[in-house]
Specification:
Largest sheet: 6 strands, parallel
Structural class: alpha/beta
Number of domains: 2
CATH class of the largest domain: Alpha Beta
CATH superfamily of the largest domain: Response regulator
Order of helices and strands: HHHEHEHEEEHEHEHEHHEHEHEEH
Helix content: 25-40%
Distance between the termini: 28 Å
Strand content: 15-25%
Shape: globular
Number of strands: 12
Length: about 325
């Protein structure tokens, strides 16, 4: 494959290959997370285009003010190879931020850390998304977690969504749209706790508004989802609204409505999805989105880690990210696309 111009950076190469920046980054590190075919295609294209990525384990010329922090930081990645808009919206930004501070860092596969927990001794801190799922950290091992619910260690800081505000935005939007009933849609394997507040708060908030709301979970492989959606819509009046738990759940919801020929009928007035995603923006009409601003969360995660390394004995910090409602009919939304 020959590119018309040399990619300026990692994101530029990712756009030309029609993959995420995280996927390109993993391929250039020969990560086992990617198939051999995908990795080879990306590396071959990078070589043919003359793209020379900087090393992520050396110091960059650009450093923050003051003495740079030294030592390697682990960026822990999950093992699944499917697209993950949360992970892919956070980890590349974290990597770039750590490089600006001159902090060495490397990606590590979760399964590799489970097999060889002694790998932790090679690192001075860790950054990861969601809960660790079997990985055990020493009680005072410094790190920053983006999203998650497991109890935190003494030196572990966390930044996560303010789900109370997320639910207020979602329920308020549907209430203003005049819905008389609603459903919250989520994928079972994405919800790791039995009473996730984004779901339970939405159900209770809608009940307080006098609006009938019900859960609509689905499995990763769920061939009956569209038919269940049809049955739900036909089981009552037409003033029904939908709340997607996250971007991937929103895509599943919009695909089902589109296949039923109902997307134009319900979106954007009665479809709201937590988080902003290009996948959701590709639907017409696009649903209303609740922007968690993942890039800002990633930048704050870096700042929290730098502070943690400088203050190892300070108690763990919990930071809540304020969400924002994005309506596709507004000029502001069009500028963000």
């Amino acid at each position: 494959m020959t590119l018309c111009r040399k990619p300026r950076n990692l994101n530029d190469l990712a756009r030309q290959l029609n993959v995420t920046a995280a996927t390109v980054s993993l391929a250039l590190r020969n990560s086992p997370l990617l198939s051999a075919e995908v990795g080879e295609r990306i590396r071959r294209t990078a070589a043919e285009s003359g793209f020379s990525p900087r090393s992520y384990t050396r110091r960059t010329k650009e450093k923050a003010a003051g003495k740079p922090v030294t030592g390697a930081v682990m960026l822990l990645m999950n093992d699944h190879g499917e697209e993950d808009p949360v992970r892919d919206g956070i980890m590349p930004v974290v990597s770039q931020g750590l490089s600006r501070y001159g902090i060495e860092h490397r990606y590590v596969n979760r399964s590799g850390l489970l097999e060889k927990p002694e790998l932790l001794s090679e690192f001075r801190a860790i950054v990861f998304c969601n809960d660790l799922q079997g990985v055990r950290l020493p009680e005072k091992f410094p790190g920053v977690q983006v999203f998650g619910w497991d109890p935190r260690g003494e030196a572990l800081d966390r930044i996560t969504a303010n789900d109370d505000e997320v639910v207020s935005l979602a329920s308020g939007h549907l209430r203003r749209a005049g819905v008389t009933r609603a459903a919250v849609v989520w994928q079972r394997n994405m919800v790791q706790i039995p009473d996730h507040p984004r779901i339970s708060l939405f159900l209770s908030r809608m009940k307080a508004f006098g609006i009938q709301a019900e859960p609509m979970p689905f499995d990763r492989e769920d061939p009956d989802f569209t038919e269940r959606m049809r049955n739900l819509i036909e089981s009552g009046d037409e003033k029904i609204g939908f709340f997607g738990f996250n971007a991937l759940c929103g895509v599943k919801l919009c695909c089902a409505l589109e296949s039923l020929g109902l997307l134009r009928k319900y979106s954007p007035d009665r479809v709201v999805v937590c988080d902003k995603s290009l996948m959701l923006s590709s639907f017409f009409p696009s649903p209303v989105m609740i922007d968690l601003n993942l890039s800002v969360m990633a930048e704050r995660a870096v700042e929290m880690l730098v502070w943690r390394l400088a203050n190892p004995d300070a108690p763990g910090v919990l930071m809540l990210q304020t969400p924002k409602l994005l309506d596709p009919r507004t000029e502001q939304f069009q500028k963000l696309k």
